[in-house]
Fold each of these.
Amino acid sequence: MGELISPARLRAVLGKHHLSLRKKLGQNFLVDGNIVRKIVAAGNLTPEDVVVEIGPGAGMLTAAVAAAAGRVVAVELDRALLPVLAETLAGYDNVLVVQGDALEVDFDRLVEEAVGAPVREYKVMANLPYYITTPLIMRLLRGGFHITEMVLMVQLEVAARMAARPGTGDYGALSVAVQYYGRPEVLFRVPRTVFFPAPGVDSAVVRLIRRGKPAVTVEDEDLFFTLVRGAFGQRRKTLANALAGAKVMPGWTRAAWEELIRAAGIDPRCRGETLGMQEFASLARAVSIRKNGGQPDLFT
Ligand SMILES: C[S@@+](CC[C@H](N)C(=O)[O-])C[C@H]1O[C@@H](n2cnc3c(N)ncnc32)[C@H](O)[C@@H]1O
């Protein structure tokens, strides 16, 4: 496997299968053994671990993960890569390659098929296809899967957004979602030169440990996330203006929002980007009470 990790070897194996890489599918493959080793080390893998890899590509990372973990399920969208993977992973009998769309497959079911029994916890490791990074992370977090930990290579800018604190320019809906479900840690930066072909941006590897329970108590998660998206939808507006403008609640005017936000203990003139997780939770609680006919003073 080691010999695969160079641009020349990758070109040779792709050439043999008459393949060229598809930019549209985010096909920037790792060609640096050191980075592959660092990603695998970040997973703290043992033979007990079951790992889902998203987008195995030509199998560079897959092989290294397979050497350290007990079982690997690799989900690749591009059917044309399957013969390449069959060749590069021939030496590993603990890998199941599945052709499918990571935005649609049931990861729990695939893991169960691979292991032959339901699995209570597994990890995700991936050099993510950049064109779907955010929806994919949201699905991994909100899809109800038994994922305990993820090690993800993402664009540097996405890594910063995942770990951003309130009041900073990087803080947004992705930060709230990631930190609601987990504890993100940006581990190291990855220069664009370690990919073939080199993308236009640098990347970073992020480890995300799932929390036992979400960071704050929220009764209606859909409402919570609708409010979060509304608050960040128009960042330059005040919170009340942004929520009214985003039509988060049909028919609610700015004045109604101002009153409700105040009743939730928040200054309605602030911007969404200053709100911490707890404040979004208070806001969701206030909206729930109001929707159910309660009075604002019930929740001050
Ligand atoms: C950045 S490459 C990573 C390849 C390989 N893991 C590596 O590190 O060299 C992303 C991979 O994801 C695959 N991919 C793109 N969209 C996908 C999707 N919706 N579901 C599963 N795989 C996808 C691409 O075909 C490509 O192989």
Amino acid sequence: MNQLELRDLQVVYSGKNVLQVEQTSFERGKIVGIVGPSGSGKSTLLRVMSLLERPATGMMNVFGTSVHLPSLTHANGLALQRIIGFVQQKPTMFDATVFDNVALGLRYRKMDRATIQARVTEALKLVELEDAEAQRAPTLSGGEAQRVALARVLVYQPDLLFLDEPTANLDPYNVSIYERVIQAVHRQHQTTILIVSHNLQQARRLTDRCLFLHKGRIVEACDTASFFEQPQTSGLQDFLCGRMIY
Ligand SMILES: Nc1ncnc2c1ncn2[C@@H]1O[C@H](COP(=O)(O)OP(=O)(O)OP(=O)(O)O)[C@@H](O)[C@H]1O
């Protein structure tokens, strides 16, 4: 099965339903944008799909393998976790060199030194930070840190790449590097990419498909051109026009 699918997903915080998805699927090898107002559940959705958080209910089927998310243990989820690359909104840089930060996932996978060296060099070159290998990661600028965070997941060549507001707070130069990298990775590896973005132009530039999340529900999901040119619901129409929606 060439799909990533969610069914009967529900996330509840302090008695409040913050995410409720009956069914949605993502075609393998596509870039999908997730947009919606602040607090609509976008980051929660990515955290749950990255297995960092367990929902109250929900099944996820990843290319034919089905998992019951609430009961998934760390040990049972490990194989799946290893094909997922998640870059969080505010990535943590460990107090080590850029090289060691990027090598982390490969060391967990017990790869040999030569492979680690080659993969890290390649990933840093891709994000245009090959000269920063020896720099202490906490001294990086915000834009550089975001690119290192991306290199840190690209280095293990994930099948699924989840990006949460990857270019918020970056200048146009860093945004364009970041977008080029995403497109190059997608072209080369046909990675399935989900990207949360408040930058509607970016969602339009990068994605094949978009979904609109409002109050924890997927209200609209379609190809990117239709999403922006023919929004069906008043919620999405208002959102795209910059009107406050409730
Ligand atoms: N750990 C938590 N405990 C309680 N409530 C939470 C927790 N995490 C998120 N929430 C709530 O869940 C809702 C969805 O949050 P989420 O961060 O997923 O929204 P978002 O769409 O990503 O927002 P933004 O665009 O502002 O980043 C919000 O109302 C938020 O306050």
